[in-house]
């Protein structure tokens, strides 16, 4: 930090650097706690930290907004969507809402990006009494239903009337009706034409935007570059998206670089049935000729997502045209597309000809085989991210070959709901990139996994050297590999593709590597894995996870576990705990998302012989106190019959054993006296209840948390002394 000068008495420290250099150093620091610590060093550091802080998420109680300091005048990105009590009107506790809104405007004069929980139209009307002159990006959040007294379009009227320079609008977490937006866009043509990004991928929709509404939206916003829409492709519904709608999008918005069309059925994110053949029996009204015409009309496309959920057949030729008509395409996601890669002979076809792709996601492709995977790896040789879901015909052999061919680039993989790829098979298939992968999702399907299983062995029966001879002429020999994640690690390194040799000889001594049956050498440690995502059935255990091959993840920092299934009718588990304590083998694990929101059971009195959700929560959370977590997001199980997701007494008692927690977010409700348990966690700084699911309860009038309950708990939390 400092050293004594040659003269002997003077010391040189970091504070002696020119302010221009220090400003760049401070601007590069993104961690909030680190920035807060820097601001406490001295007055000059405080001034520089405030000057370089451009993003701020306000927490705390909305009643204290009048106490906001005025030193954050350089903030450009302001998030007001997480104020407490969560989900309540922003200015409901203010004696003079207009004065408070003007105070916010004065405290943050340079805001260009705003996120706010807009429970009712009055919130935006007050915030925009004196609008920010440079406001360009707005994200509206609302999980509660639209007030029945609000006229259609009133939620957006103030925004479009006062913010003529608006370029980005995000409604992906905003509960509204599809007919609300088109009239507002038509009534404000100047603001509508200035929009460049529009996110309407709203999960609250049951049917999404109708075909006519999509045509009206795209006609009103001709300069859109990013368009994300929730819709329906089911031809049995009126207003479904088909050829006419797709052609209108390409004609009205030719500047699109990102197009995401998601069927509302794909937004639930529930795991399908691995036994499903992948054919729905209902064909979407999307023809091959239309797809080719759409791709020709959108030459600037860089990202394309078509979550159709209805069968799109014979797509091979159209996808070949996609590669040639959209040369900048880098991200592609397809659902329910069949024939994407025919894999006939050695000639590349279909999606394999989209050779600039860096990210590819394939879901529910009925005819995708191992040879199709190999052909994709040969053609799309720059893939950094590969997700495959619901493909019944692919096996460990094909996935392992794909990872071998993409070893130089592939660092993000998801394998889900594939019949022949359980957890152990998926991890064996990823052995060639075990030392390189950074993000991973697998399904915890154990299929009778035992501790004595030899999981390091491969069961492949072909020689990768022969495959490499076939593939070498088709591989892209471009020396430049695009860095998908802008990682500095890749900068300046030689990326020239060379033909790999998978030697079976053991002449060299690599004591730190493991050799598999193919002779491919790979590290036994998942040393770069930072993020792990798991799906697991409601009655399965997490304990076989290390035995399946994930025993050594020295740098794993974050894990997401999604538990799904119906507890009703399930027998009582034979084990005492679900298995969270097994995660203690990961020394750097500090963040966890435990999502039991898709677990259904009896919240109230269960029938005789059945367990209620209290006992199931105890089963899921047993052992969580053994983990050294800093941050935890927890979704309690739900009772769909009463629309209740509430923290139980056993769950509150087990969560209080997480003594290292600093942040705890419960995505549901809780009793006030249950929340008091968390006051025993010594360093806990941030606790919030978020009912971020549709429809969020309008009010909790029994014993659940209300505005006064949240305020009382937060007062107790803030009165405690914190060691650091």
Low-confidence parts: 1-8, 451-522
Helical/strand content category? alpha/beta
Strand tally: 24
Q: What is the percentage of strand-forming residues? A: 15-25%
Task: Give the termini distance in whole angstroms.
Answer: 22 Å
Gross morphology? globular
Approximate helicity band: 10-25%
Structural account:
By secondary structure, this protein is of the alpha/beta class. The strands form 3 sheets. It has a 20-stranded parallel beta sheet, covered by helices on one side. A two-stranded antiparallel sheet has the order 1-2. Strands 17-18 form a two-stranded antiparallel sheet. The model is unreliable at 1-8 and 451-522 (pLDDT under 50). The radius of gyration is 27 Å and the shape is globular. The protein is built from 21 helices and 24 strands. Helix content is 25%, strand content 18%.
Describe the secondary structure blueprint for this structure.
Blueprint: E1 2-4, E2 11-13, H1 19-27, H2 32-39, H3 43-52, E3 55-57, E4 77-80, H4 97-107, E5 113-117, H5 121-127, E6 137-142, H6 154-162, E7 168-174, H7 181-187, H8 189-194, E8 197-200, H9 211-220, E9 226-231, H10 243-252, E10 258-263, H11 288-297, E11 303-312, H12 316-325, E12 331-337, E13 359-363, H13 370-379, E14 385-389, H14 396-405, E15 412-416, H15 423-429, E16 439-443, H16 464-471, E17 513-515, E18 521-523, E19 531-537, H17 546-550, E20 558-566, E21 591-600, H18 613-621, E22 631-635, H19 649-655, E23 663-666, H20 672-675, E24 686-689, H21 707-719
Parallel strand pairs: 3-4, 4-5, 5-6, 6-7, 7-8, 8-9, 9-10, 10-11, 11-12, 12-13, 13-14, 14-15, 15-16, 16-19, 19-20, 20-21, 21-22, 22-23, 23-24
Antiparallel strand pairs: 1-2, 17-18
């Amino acid at each position: 930090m400092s050293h004594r000068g040659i003269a002997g008495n003077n010391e040189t420290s970091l504070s002696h650097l020119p302010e221009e250099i220090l400003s760049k150093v401070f601007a590069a620091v993104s961690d909030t706690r680190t920035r807060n610590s820097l601001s406490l060093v001295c007055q000059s550091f405080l001034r520089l930290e405030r000057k370089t802080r451009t993003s701020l998420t306000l927490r705390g109680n909305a009643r204290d907004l009048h106490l906001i300091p005025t030193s954050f005048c350089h903030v450009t990105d302001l998030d007001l969507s997480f104020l407490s009590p969560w989900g309540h009107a922003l200015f409901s506790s203010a004696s003079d809402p207009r004065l408070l809104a003007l105070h916010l405007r004065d405290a943050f004069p340079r805001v260009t990006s705003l996120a706010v929980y807009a429970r009712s139209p009055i919130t935006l009307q007050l915030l925009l009494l004196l609008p920010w002159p440079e406001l360009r990006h707005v994200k509206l959040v609302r999980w509660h239903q639209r007030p029945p007294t609000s006229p259609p379009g009133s939620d957006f009227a103030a925004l479009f009337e006062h913010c003529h320079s608006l370029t980005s609008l995000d409604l992906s977490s905003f509960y509204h009706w599809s007919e609300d937006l088109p009239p507002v866009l038509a009534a404000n043509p100047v603001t509508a034409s200035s929009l460049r990004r529009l996110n309407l991928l709203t999960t609250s929709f049951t049917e999404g935007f109708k075909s006519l509404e999509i045509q009206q939206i795209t006609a009103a916003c001709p300069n859109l570059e990013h368009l994300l829409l929730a819709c329906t492709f089911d031809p049995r519904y009126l207003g479904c998206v088909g050829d006419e709608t797709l052609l209108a999008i390409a004609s009205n918005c030719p500047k699109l670089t990102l197009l995401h069309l998601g069927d509302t059925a794909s937004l639930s994110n529930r795991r399908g049935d691995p036994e499903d053949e992948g054919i729905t029996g209902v064909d979407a009204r999307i023809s091959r000729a239309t797809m080719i015409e759409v791709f020709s009309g959108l030459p600037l496309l860089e990202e394309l997502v078509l979550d159709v959920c209805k069968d799109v057949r014979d797509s091979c030729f159209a996808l070949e045209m996609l590669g040639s008509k959209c040369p900048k395409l880098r991200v592609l996601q397809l659902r329910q597309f069949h024939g994407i890669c025919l894999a006939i002979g050695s000639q590349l076809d279909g999606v394999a000809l989209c050779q600039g792709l860096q990210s590819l996601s394939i879901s529910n492709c009925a005819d995708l085989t191992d040879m199709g995977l190999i052909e994709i790896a040969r053609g799309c040789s720059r893939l950094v991210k590969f997700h495959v879901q619901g493909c019944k015909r692919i096996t460990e052999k094909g996935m392992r070959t794909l990872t071998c061919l993409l070893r130089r680039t592939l660092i993000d993989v998801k394998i889900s709901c594939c019949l022949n790829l359980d957890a152990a098979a998926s991890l064996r298939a990823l052995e060639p990139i075990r030392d390189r992968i950074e993000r991973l999702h697998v399904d915890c399907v154990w299929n009778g996994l035992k501790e004595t299983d030899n999981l390091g062995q491969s069961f492949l029966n072909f020689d990768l050297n022969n495959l490499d001879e076939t593939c070498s002429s088709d591989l892209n020999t471009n020396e430049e590999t695009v860095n998908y994640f802008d990682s500095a690690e890749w900068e300046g390194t030689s990326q020239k593709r060379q033909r790999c040799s998978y030697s079976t000889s053991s002449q060299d001594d690599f004591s730190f590597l493991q050799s598999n049956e193919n002779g491919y050498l790979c590290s036994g440690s998942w040393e770069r894995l930072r993020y792990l995502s798991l799906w697991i059935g409601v009655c399965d255990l997490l304990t076989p996870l290390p035995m399946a091959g994930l025993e050594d993840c020295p740098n794993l920092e974050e894990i997401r576990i999604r538990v799904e299934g119906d507890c009703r009718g399930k027998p009582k588990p034979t084990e005492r705990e679900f298995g969270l304590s097994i995660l203690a083998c990961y020394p750097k694990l500090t963040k966890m998302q435990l999502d039991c929101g898709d677990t259904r059971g009896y919240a109230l009195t269960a029938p005789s012989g059945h367990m209620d959700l209290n006992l199931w929560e105890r089963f899921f959370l047993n052992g969580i106190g053994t983990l050294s977590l800093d941050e935890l997001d927890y979704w309690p199980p739900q009772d769909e019959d009463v629309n209740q997701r509430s923290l139980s007494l056993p769950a509150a008692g087990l969560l209080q054993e997480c003594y290292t927690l600093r942040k705890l977010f419960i995505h549901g409700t809780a009793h006030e006296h249950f929340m008091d348990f968390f006051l025993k966690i010594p360093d806990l700084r941030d606790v919030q209840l978020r009912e971020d699911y549709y429809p969020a309860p309008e009010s909790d009038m029994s014993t659940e948390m209300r505005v006064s309950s949240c305020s009382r708990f937060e007062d107790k939390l803030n009165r405690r002394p914190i060691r650091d």
